[in-house]
Amino acid sequence: MAADVQPANSPLSGQVLLYVNPEPLDSSRHRKLGMLRSDRPFSFAARQHFVPLHVGEFAPAATNYPIIFAGEQRAPLAVMGVNAGENLFISAEGVFRTGAYVPAFIRRYPFVVARDQQLDRMVVCIDRDFALFTENKPDVMLFEDGQPSAFTKGCIDFCSQFDADSQMTQSFVKLLGDLDLFESKQTTFAPRAADGTTGEPQLVAEYFAVSEERLKKLPDAKLAELRDNGALAQIYAHMVSLYGWDRLILETIERNNLAVQVPNA
Questions:
Q1: Which of 237, 248, 220, 245 lies closest to 89 in space, CA to CA?
Q2: Core vs surface per residue 190-202: b (16+ CB within 10 A) or e
Q3: What are the backbone angles phi and psi of residue 144, rounded to the nearest 5°?
Q4: CA atoms in the 13 A half-sphere facing the CB of 114
């Protein structure tokens, strides 16, 4: 699910979900490049069933998505679908579900920051394969008179804030790890037959989450510290979000049933 930020012979390094053909933003190479406006711009993420999430997004994201921690780095993720390749919140045409929170990781696209190994510095890149990029009468230019346009400046600023939020998120995850609050969890589903009988539970996902039991055992002083620095509110948002698994599973079942019924209609 991750694409190399650049081919093997490139000085750029790193891996980023969604990005197919990133290249450094350049006033000469991209002097004629711009973007088309669209009311359905999110097709690039329509097959991504999870996206990274910043800790500052936990509260608004919790109303729509289960928030889990994954991998050795315990990276926070917003779960947007149960099955790989299926996003329940973005249509194939690129329309985001009305009222659903749009994670910053998606809003940042097609811009991204990567490291230039030769120059040992970070550079702003764009995914050149983004469908809305064009050199034929774009609605918004990336550069004007050799300088980043107001639109591009805003995107670069957003990337800078995104990276700052990433650092804050890493600190939050480290705090949870230092307090030994993570536990391994599973989400399962027991299918129900037409006659009402329940089948064997099926594994839906394995991930890490904050242990409510371990959280309760923290000293009062530590809980007060987590409350005062805002971490406790984010922890509770994560824990509440996990109730969203049932909603995602039921919606997936409904979609699967409709897919079976339509050909037989």
A1: 248
A2: eeeeeeeeeeeee
A3: -135, 120
A4: 28
Cα separation, 56 vs 234, in Å, equals: 8
Domain boundaries, the chain: 2-264
Return the closest-CA partner of residue 109 out of 67, 48, 170. 48
Q: Do the beta carbons of residue 183 and residue 171 sit within 8 Å?
A: no
Q: What is the pLDDT confidence band of residue 45, given thresholds at 50, 70 and 90?
A: very high
Which tens digit of pLDDT belongs to each residue from 188-247? Answer: 887 766 666 777 788 889 999 999 999 999 999 999 999 999 999 999 999 999 999 999
> Quick check: 124 and 30 in contact, CB under 8 A?
no
Give me Rg for the CA atoms of the chain.
Answer: 21
Residues 6+ apart with CB under 8 A from 83: 49, 252
pTM for the full predicted model: 0.87
